């Protein structure tokens, strides 16, 4: 039995999407228990979920608002549903926690309550994007860290490898370093230095480093994992969401232009809905916060019940496949290599200076 | 009469796409002359273009390869078609130059031959992306500058404004600063400082600064211009190209799944082709290299004749609308504001220190 703590108050609509998602998830996963964390009066409209035999309500008096500054969420709202839910993981009452709340607050509270793993400076957010090979590319970081050092990017590569290995079962997932060209000489100083570290880690046999990749490689599926700083990852993710929405709107507009195009839509309907299902970003909802001493998953704030259910599934898969232990082991195993790489880099810098 | 110098040898296939594009462009633009720069023997298969009354062949003995290092292109190949074409602009023989060659080489040679405008440290590459409002968003920089300072981003904002004003005729195009959130406190240090500079420039009345925008705003068309460093811009552009290709491939695949879906495709054909036309990235081909003492346009290396023709049209529009003078005037006008903003920032830094 896996127990997941759910921040029922997070996201744009809170319980109106999280509780129906919990109900559906319980139906399809008989080996799951849920801790429903939130304000009981706000959740009372969904009695069947609250009274489900595999659910337990954990009351919390406060809610972190989507626009609360991190400081307010962290220092003023000590009884928030987000914090109480994370504490369930710290206390061992749950194996994972899922929240659709404010990303900055979730990261800060999770870091404060759970702490980072040994060898990790900064946790990262990893998510999946669909690719042309019919699978998904895991991309990290997606906004937790806007200014990254080469060492951070190396840590992201190791954690991303652990995630894909645990959840997808790939023994040696490939890692690409997001850059503006495939050549080693391309990119910013940070990226070039990160390339050196990643190559050294690969030579030591602890990372399957493919080399530099470009923006389009995320969707081509050139590598299983794409590593980048949080600024670039966030822009790439949001630009892709924006483009997908625009294309969706264009298709709708073109098909509703006249009676003839509407008839065309009727005939094309089965195909269009198959297509829509295939690129439905809700199916990829649920980012993993990696590098913490506990499993934390972030749902999109605007997630509906269908999307939130997918975030629950991701947390469940991670807990079931022992992601936490997998990340810890990989980091521990790579630790000597990481420091060796750092020392080699320092020596190289000293020689070239 | 506008004269455009064309690097006929640039791009993946060289004359096979540039010369048919020139022929089509001459047909639709009676007030244009073209200087066809390249190796005469490589261009001889298109005699009707070479002998066109409004064309003149300018021979060049060398070609910059797509994978030539910048140093080779700049120092070893002094009689390359790219360099000879750029020199036509310097010498006043042409008002603009278009090349589908190696971006790094084009930027380096253009900078060396033409020099930058007063007040500009680094030229930027600007291109248009289609948006949901039915127009296009101008994004810069797209890869010329991977490490940018706040001052560079301010210069990009001013140059982008000049471009959109000259080519689209908008009196006061709006500028968004690409960031990971709309709030002023978000983002990397460079972006936060750039936000301060852009707000000061806007207060001085020389820039219509909207504020921070996110990746999806490029495609929403929230602002006319989106400013970012070349690393982020390049990743956003390529990720979007990758996603668009994937979606195109998915649609094709879904429609060819069975005899029934193929029939659906038949009925949906007029709509699908209208849609395809609408998002055809070839129609947006042609990036402007801004900040140089001459008009330089970069076509995608893989451009076919249809795409290259659009790059020619962009160069023509820019020359006809006096883009060079417009950028020069805007930069000159903003120069006191830019230095005032810098001084104010320095003073602020001193006060807060």
From TrEMBL, chains A, B:
<comment type="pathway">
    <text>Lipid metabolism; phospholipid metabolism.</text>
</comment>
<keyword id="KW-0808">Transferase</keyword>
<comment type="function">
    <text>Catalyzes the reversible formation of acyl-phosphate (acyl-PO(4)) from acyl-[acyl-carrier-protein] (acyl-ACP). This enzyme utilizes acyl-ACP as fatty acyl donor, but not acyl-CoA.</text>
</comment>
<dbReference type="InterPro" id="IPR003664">
    <property type="entry name" value="FA_synthesis"/>
</dbReference>
<keyword id="KW-0444">Lipid biosynthesis</keyword>
<keyword id="KW-0963">Cytoplasm</keyword>
<dbReference type="InterPro" id="IPR012281">
    <property type="entry name" value="Phospholipid_synth_PlsX-like"/>
</dbReference>
<dbReference type="Pfam" id="PF02504">
    <property type="entry name" value="FA_synthesis"/>
</dbReference>
<protein>
    <recommendedName>
        <fullName>Phosphate acyltransferase</fullName>
        <ecNumber>2.3.1.274</ecNumber>
    </recommendedName>
</protein>
<dbReference type="GO" id="GO:0043811">
    <property type="term" value="F:phosphate:acyl-[acyl carrier protein] acyltransferase activity"/>
</dbReference>
<keyword id="KW-0443">Lipid metabolism</keyword>
<keyword id="KW-0594">Phospholipid biosynthesis</keyword>
<keyword id="KW-1208">Phospholipid metabolism</keyword>
<comment type="similarity">
    <text>Belongs to the PlsX family.</text>
</comment>
<comment type="subunit">
    <text>Homodimer. Probably interacts with PlsY.</text>
</comment>
<keyword id="KW-0012">Acyltransferase</keyword>
């Amino acid at each position: 039995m896996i127990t997941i703590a759910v921040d029922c108050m997070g996201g744009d609509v809170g319980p109106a999407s999280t509780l129906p998602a919990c109900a559906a998830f319980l139906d399809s996963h008989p080996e799951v228990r849920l801790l429903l964390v939130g304000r009981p009066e706000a959740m009372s409209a969904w009695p069947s979920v609250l009274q489900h035999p595999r659910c337990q309500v954990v009351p919390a008096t406060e809610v972190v608002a989507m626009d609360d500054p991190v400081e307010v969420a962290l220092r003023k709202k000590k009884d928030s549903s987000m914090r109480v839910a994370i504490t369930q993981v710290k206390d061992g009452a749950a194996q994972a926690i899922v929240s659709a709340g404010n990303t900055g607050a979730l990261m800060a509270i999770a870091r404060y309550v759970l702490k980072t793993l040994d060898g990790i400076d900064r946790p990262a957010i990893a998510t999946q994007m669909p690719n042309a090979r019919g699978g998904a590319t895991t991309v990290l970081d997606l906004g937790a860290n806007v200014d990254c050092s080469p060492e951070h990017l190396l840590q992201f590569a190791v954690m991303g490898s652990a995630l894909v290995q645990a959840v997808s079962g790939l023994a040696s997932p490939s890692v690409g370093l997001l850059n503006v060209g495939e050549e080693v000489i391309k990119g910013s100083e940070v990226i070039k230095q990160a390339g050196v570290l990643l190559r050294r880690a690969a030579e030591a046999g602890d990372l399957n480093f493919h080399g530099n990749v470009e923006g389009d490689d995320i969707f081509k599926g050139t590598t299983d994992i794409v590593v980048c700083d949080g600024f670039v990852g966030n822009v790439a993710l949001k630009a892709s969401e924006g483009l997908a929405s625009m294309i969706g709107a264009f298709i709708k507009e073109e098909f509703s232009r006249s009676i003839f195009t509407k008839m065309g839509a009727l005939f094309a309907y089965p195909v269009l809905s198959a297509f829509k299902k295939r690129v439905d970003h809700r199916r990829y909802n649920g980012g993993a916060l990696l590098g913490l001493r506990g499993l934390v998953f972030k749902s999109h704030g605007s997630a509906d019940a269908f999307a939130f259910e997918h975030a629950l599934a991701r947390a469940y898969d991670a807990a079931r496949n022992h992601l936490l232990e997998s990340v810890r082991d990989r980091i521990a195993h790579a630790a000597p290599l990481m420091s060796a790489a750092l020392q080699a880099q320092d020596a190289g810098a000293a020689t070239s200076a």
